[in-house]
Specification:
CATH architecture of one domain: Alpha-Beta Complex
Distance between the termini: 60 Å
Structural class: alpha+beta
CATH superfamily of one domain: paralog of FGE (formylglycine-generating enzyme)
Shape: globular
Number of helices: 10
CATH topology of one domain: paralog of FGE (formylglycine-generating enzyme)
C-alpha cells in the first residue's frame, strides 16, 4: 500500500508540472527549424527516374539495364571539390597536428601558459592543453579530466585532451627566426623534411605526417547486432595529402612533371578540381567537413547540428547528373557532345585523342561549361567522380527501387561516374558505370559531396 501511495504522489508531481497544456497531448516544445542550404551546394529535389542505359550499350558491358527508382531530396556541391577547398582541409589537419604536438611536449616538460609576464610567457607553454590547470576547470570538465582524459586510452594517452580555442587560442609562429624556445623549434622541425630532401631548396612539409582519424557507423552491420557496443568503427589514420605523383604514374612515357609539381598547391590552380585523392581520402574529407561545420554551430545557441556530408550514392549521382531530363544521354540531354554553335559541351578526349579540341588539355576550372538544369557543373567530363557505392555488375538486378545503393564495405571496387578529361565520349554518358579501387588515386578522378535534405516536402513531383 505504501508503494502505491508513493507512486501516486510521484505521478501527481508530474501531472502538476504541465505548463499550460491543460493536460492535452501537445508534444515537446522545440526550437523552430528551417532548412539551411549549405554554402556552394544546390538542392536536388527527390523523385523517380529511369536509371540505366536508354540507348545502345556500345561497349556491350551490360551492367546498366533500365530500372525505375526513386531517390530522396539532397543537397549537392555545384562543382567538384576544388584544390582550394581541399587545401583548407589539409591546412586544418596540419595546424591541428602541430598544436597537438606542441601541447604534448609542453605537458611533458611541465610548462603551462600564464596570464602574461610569467616565466613561461612566450614559450611552448602558451600552447599547452586547455585542461593543464585542473583547479580552474568547471565541475564538468574537472570530472571528465579526472575520470577519462587524464588516463587516455590504450592507443592514445592524450585522447580527449582539449586544445585551446577561441580567444585563448594562440597563433602559430611560422617564421623560424621568431620561434619562442627550443621546444617549439623541436616540434616544428619534426613536421618538415630535412633540407637534403626538400625540393628546389624550399622548406617542405613532410606530408606523410598529415594524418586524419575519424569514426563512422556501418549501419547495415549495426542493425543486425544487439546493443550499442561496438557501434562506432574507428578507421585507421588516413594520410590525407593528394598523391601528386599520379600525374606521372598514370601516363607512362609522357611529360607531366609540371602538373605534379604545381597542380595542387599553386594558386594558379586553386579553382580547379582536386585529383590524386582516393576513395578513403574523399570520405575523410566528408567527415572533416561535417565536424568543421558542427564545431562552428556548437558555439552558437539555438541551432541544431547538421547531418553528415558524404559521397553521393550511385543512383543519387545519376539522378543529379540527368538534371531532370528523362532518358537523356548527357547532362544537357544530347544526343550530341556539341552545341548548336559547334562548341564542345564538356572537357573530354574527342576526335580520336585530340585532348585540346574542347578547349582544355588537362582539367579546367570547376565552374566551366554550362551547368545542367539542377545548376551542377561538369557532371560530364573534367574529372570523374567517386561515389559511395561499391561496384557490382549485377547491382541493378537486386538493389531496392527506393534510394538504391550497394554499401558493401568489403568490396574495394567503388563506382566512379561522369568520365574525365582523358576519357572518350562513352564515359561522359550519365548512365555509364565505371569503377576504381578504393585505395587508388588518379589524376583524372575527383569528387563532390552531398548532404541529406531534412524533410520530405522538396520532391520534384510534389503536388502543388
Amino acid at each position: 500500500m505504501k508503494k502505491l501511495v508513493a507512486f501516486t504522489a510521484i505521478l501527481s508531481l508530474f501531472i502538476s508540472c504541465g505548463k499550460g497544456d491543460r493536460g492535452e497531448l501537445v508534444g515537446v516544445k522545440g526550437r523552430k527549424w528551417n532548412p539551411e542550404k549549405p554554402y556552394g551546394m544546390t538542392l536536388v529535389p527527390g523523385g523517380a527516374f529511369i536509371m540505366g542505359k536508354s540507348d545502345d550499350d556500345l561497349a556491350n558491358i551490360q551492367d546498366a539495364p533500365t530500372k525505375t527508382v526513386t531517390v530522396r531530396s539532397f543537397y549537392m556541391d555545384e562543382t567538384e571539390i576544388t584544390n582550394s577547398e581541399y587545401r583548407q582541409f589539409v591546412e586544418w589537419v596540419k595546424d591541428s597536428i602541430i598544436r597537438t604536438r606542441l601541447a604534448i611536449l609542453a605537458d611533458e616538460v611541465g610548462q603551462t601558459s600564464t596570464d602574461g609576464g610569467g616565466k613561461n610567457a612566450g614559450s611552448i607553454g602558451d600552447y599547452a592543453f586547455a585542461d593543464a590547470n585542473v583547479e580552474e576547470m568547471s565541475p564538468y570538465d574537472k570530472y571528465m579530466y579526472e575520470n577519462y582524459y587524464s588516463v587516455g586510452t590504450d592507443d592514445d594517452m592524450y585522447a580527449g585532451r582539449k586544445l585551446k580555442s577561441g580567444k585563448d587560442k594562440p597563433k602559430l609562429i611560422l617564421d623560424p627566426q621568431k620561434y619562442p624556445d627550443e621546444y617549439y623549434v623541436e616540434v616544428m622541425d619534426s613536421m618538415y623534411l630535412p633540407e637534403s630532401e626538400s625540393y628546389n631548396g624550399l622548406k617542405t612539409v613532410d606530408v606523410s605526417k598529415l594524418m586524419f582519424k575519424f569514426k563512422e557507423v556501418d549501419w547495415n552491420k549495426a542493425v543486425k547486432k544487439k546493443g550499442r557496443k561496438g557501434l562506432y568503427e574507428e578507421n585507421p589514420p588516413i594520410e590525407i595529402y593528394p598523391d601528386t605523383t599520379a600525374w606521372i604514374k598514370d601516363f607512362a612515357y609522357s611529360y607531366n612533371e609540371p602538373m605534379h609539381n604545381d597542380y595542387f598547391w599553386h594558386q594558379a590552380f586553386a579553382d580547379y578540381p582536386v585529383v590524386g585523392v582516393n576513395w578513403n581520402q574523399a570520405k575523410a574529407f566528408c567527415a572533416w567537413r561535417t565536424m568543421y561545420k558542427n564545431g562552428f554551430i556548437k558555439k552558437q545557441k539555438g541551432r541544431d547540428q547538421i547531418n553528415s556530408f558524404r559521397l553521393p550514392t550511385e543512383a543519387e549521382w545519376e539522378y543529379a547528373a540527368r538534371g531532370g531530363i528523362e532518358s537523356g544521354k548527357f547532362p544537357w540531354g544530347g544526343p550530341y557532345a556539341k552545341n548548336d554553335r559547334g562548341c564542345f559541351m564538356a572537357n573530354f578526349k574527342p576526335n580520336r585523342g585530340d585532348y585540346a579540341a574542347d578547349g582544355a588539355l588537362y582539367t579546367v576550372e570547376a565552374k566551366s561549361y554550362e551547368p545542367n538544369d539542377f545548376n551542377l557543373y561538369n557532371m560530364a567530363g573534367n574529372v570523374a567522380e567517386w561515389t559511395q557505392s561499391a561496384y557490382d555488375p549485377t547491382a541493378y538486378e537486386f538493389v531496392s527501387t527506393m534510394n538504391p545503393n550497394v554499401p558493401d564495405s568489403k568490396n574495394q571496387r567503388k563506382v566512379v561516374r561522369g568520365g574525365s578529361w582523358k576519357d572518350v565520349g562513352y564515359f561522359l554518358q550519365v548512365s555509364t558505370r565505371d569503377f576504381e579501387y578504393a585505395d587508388s588515386a588518379r589524376s583524372y578522378i575527383g569528387f563532390r559531396t552531398v548532404q541529406d535534405y531534412m524533410g520530405t516536402a522538396a520532391t520534384g513531383a510534389r503536388p502543388k
